[in-house]
Amino acid sequence: MKIKQFDKLNCGAVSSDIEKALKSVAIKYGINIRTGNGKFTKDTFDLKLNIARVVSGKVISKEVNDFKKLASIYGLKASDLGRTFSTAGREFRITGLNTKAHKYPIMAECIKSGGSYKFPVKNVKLLLDK
Fold it and tell me: What is residue 74's three-state secondary structure?
């Protein structure tokens, strides 16, 4: 399919295909590559790539480093990274900190589905203390 002009739908498809195409590069260098946010006009599509090292099978992303460095500011410990908590009948693992998200800065993944979620600090602190 040839693109006549960029729109939200085809930009999403292109982004997904780029991420798949870069898998072999990521494997070759032992890194993680994922597409980030993008912006488009009808004629152009700018896409951010997030590239991080992988150490002992774990991605060392900006969000991981931010959590380790800044957890205490949020009333958490660096050792809380990777801890699990349960809410709404599902179990989540803390994966990082998004310093630009003021309401929902704690990043977590659903253990069952692998989906990414964000949570407010207050809720995570309460759930970790259970």
Answer: helix
Q: Is 6 exposed, middle or buried (0-12, 13-18, 19+ CB in 10 A)?
A: middle
Q: Which residue has the tokens 């995570």?
A: 124
Count of the separate structural domains present in the chain: 2
pTM of the model: 0.72
Q: Same domain, yes or no, for 66 and 119?
A: yes
E-strand spans in 1-130?
31-40, 45-55, 58-60, 84-87, 90-97, 106-110, 116-119
Range of the domain at 18: 8-59
Q: Which two tokens stand for residue 50?
A: 């997030």
Model confidence pLDDT, tens digit, residues 43-88? 999 999 999 999 988 888 999 999 999 999 999 999 999 999 999 9
What distance in Å separates the CA atoms of residue 127 and residue 88, rounded to the nearest whole number? Answer: 11
- Indicate the residue type of 52: A
| CA-to-CA dists, residue 104 to 15, 19, 88, 92, 121, angstroms | 25, 26, 17, 15, 7
Residue that has been written with the tokens 């982004």 in this structure: 15
